[in-house]
Amino acid sequence: MNYPHGGDTLSYREAYGRDPIDFSANLNPLGIPPAVQEAVRRSASLCAAYPDPFCRRLRRALAAHESVPEEAVLLGNGAADLIFRLAYALRPARALLVSPTFSEYEAALSQVGCACSFFRLREEDGFHLTRDILFHIADGYPLVFLCSPNNPTGQPVGRELLLEILDACEKHGTLLAVDECFVDFLDEPEAYTMKPFLREHPRLMLFGAFTKLYAMAGLRLGWCLSSDRALLDAMERAAQPWSVSTPAQEAGLAALGEEEFVRRSRALIREQREWLRVNLQSLGMTVYGSRANYLFFRSPVPELGERLKEEGILLRSCASYRALGPDYYRAAVRLPHENEALVAAMERCLNGKEK
User: Fold this and answer.
1) What is the pTM of this model?
2) 213 three-state secondary structure
3) pLDDT in tens, 112-165
4) Which residues have C-beta within 8 Å of that of residue 354, sequence separation ≥ 6?
5) Helix (H) or strand (E) holding 204
6) How far is it, in rounded angstroms, from Cα 221 to Cα 208?
7) 95: helix, strand or coil
8) Radius of gyration for the alpha carbons in the chain, expressed in angstroms and rounded
9) Structural domains present in the chain
């Protein structure tokens, strides 16, 4: 059974008989906010009834939180669910993706027979997206899918370039889908999100999720935003009934009120990301981008990920990403003592020592 993502701690436990420090899943290291946990507990008494299939309360609250019209919001069972729904609703013959990036875009599009082309992000450019992609968009793809900040590189796309890309997409009748699931971890998220341009640009769709910022991976709750209501309706018809559970809806409502939690999270991640970057570089790792809540790096140590498993640490190997090899890794930013444990374990691997 192939599992192309991070966070597979159960397989680790089966193999090693203990839980790892999990750097492979890029979630908020502070975990689920207490108010969200309490909302999930309270929701148990509501679960004898079917969940609201239209997520009315959460949809209204999320629209207000994101400063978009309520009719521009569609909720789903995680962002991945909505990515697949877009593929089923749009059924494009061709699409343009970047490489490397999140694998579920290609996986979803392959389900509807879409031929995917790839714009390769180059190491010599620091894995930044460049204006060269504009020449490819001119080929007239029905769909262009971007991730900003990109997973696994952590590089955001500047708004100026995104607006150029959006303009090119509109000229060629192309839908621009931008995955913003990690934008809240940027130091200045408001300078990168494309939300202000949704109302005037129906060829723009944005994806977000509660998964990362609120560490709600097990609850499965995501959203997409678009001013093309007909497309959102088609995506809604592509869903299974009751795709967002009552506990997930209640958790989302509680999470939207956690402003202080978000501030604390950003401050912690900003501080620890820089600490981890400096220390990984001092160990000879080449760190790229890494402006979200994870670090993307290249290791000079053969089989670093396998060696760290013996140390009780789980990294995200990037070997499964297009255009990357087994020496590339992604490590989530975690709590200070956990980040220190990672660096110490790496140092032992470099020196050929055991714990």
Assistant:
1) 0.95
2) coil
3) 999 999 999 999 999 999 999 999 999 999 999 999 999 999 999 999 999 999
4) 310, 348
5) strand 204-209
6) 9
7) strand
8) 20
9) 9-32+259-351 (3.90.1150.10), 34-255 (3.40.640.10)
